[in-house]
Amino acid sequence: MVVFLIVGCVISFAVLLHLFLWVHRPFVNFASAAHRAGRRARVLVVTAHPDDECMFFAPTLLETLRLGHQVFLLCLSTGNFEKKGLTRRRELFKSATILGIPADNVTVVDNPDLPDDINIAWDPKLVAQKILEQVFETSANVVITFDHYGVSGHRNHSSLYHGVNDLVERGQMPDNVLVYALQSVSLLRKYTSFLDVLPSILSSASTLFLSGYPAILKAQRAMCAHRSQLVWFRWLYIAFSRYMVINTLRPLGR
After folding, report:
1. In whole angstroms, how far apart are CA 128 and each of 134, 149, 169, 171, 252?
2. Model's pTM, two decimal places?
3. Residue 100, Cα to own-chain centre: how many angstroms?
């Protein structure tokens, strides 16, 4: 009985904290800072596969769009591991539409040297080249991608980090571009949904994006656009992943 009472109190506190933070939005991040300064950010989100945009980056995308900034997606593969590349490409555009990203702002790369394979690390120089091309093409002043672990340990994900980090370390990224990496968390935190709000606030990440319930539902709808990927464990992910609710980002370089 005592255990159930404690669990109930923890969940109630997390719900109330989530509601309070969603309503008051006290977080300072590149999107809110640019908005308050009357400037418009041009944000390039770099992903490895169709569905990464809503599985991992939805809180960042939706809050950035809500504040009136421009968002561009660069997906470096068609997700052709199961020979469904054409289907998954179409699903990505449907997902982007649900999230509010125009089709003209979505770029999908189909390159045999960038295969969808969890065991293959992509050439960081090729990744860096593709990212830099898109930075110049979109005039992006913010770039966001995975960190070194890539949330799930997928080597394609971590390859994006190594590519963009290579640009930063070599000084090839334009000086006006801010670069952020999506923070990976432990397996326990990954599947605690809004219960991870307090640990995320207390973490050392410098930038936090928190979705309210309408945005969470929109992210879930976007994920459902990837119908070819909706196996049973994806439904568990949609229901319990903190990445449908919270993003914490760390700056790279400056």
Report:
1. 10, 17, 11, 12, 14
2. 0.90
3. 15
